[in-house]
Specification:
Structural class: mainly alpha
Largest sheet: none
Radius of gyration: 19 Å
Shape: elongated
Distance between the termini: 62 Å
Strand content: under 5%
Helix content: over 70%
Keywords: Membrane, Transmembrane, Transmembrane helix
């Protein structure tokens, strides 16, 4: 029953989410790396 509800609610995104969950470590590492790069390369704002 739960599978039927999930298929109805998210429809075609089911296959995309299944691919994401299979490769979750890779995707999360990419996102975390992008955030860290953004934080460390942020320009310092000058207060004049």
């Amino acid at each position: 029953m739960v599978e039927t509800l999930i298929d109805f609610m998210i429809g075609p995104f089911r296959s995309i989410s299944q691919f994401y969950f299979e490769h979750q470590l890779i995707f999360n590492s990419i996102v975390l790396g992008a955030v860290l790069v953004k934080i460390f390369t942020k320009k310092k704002e000058s207060t004049n």
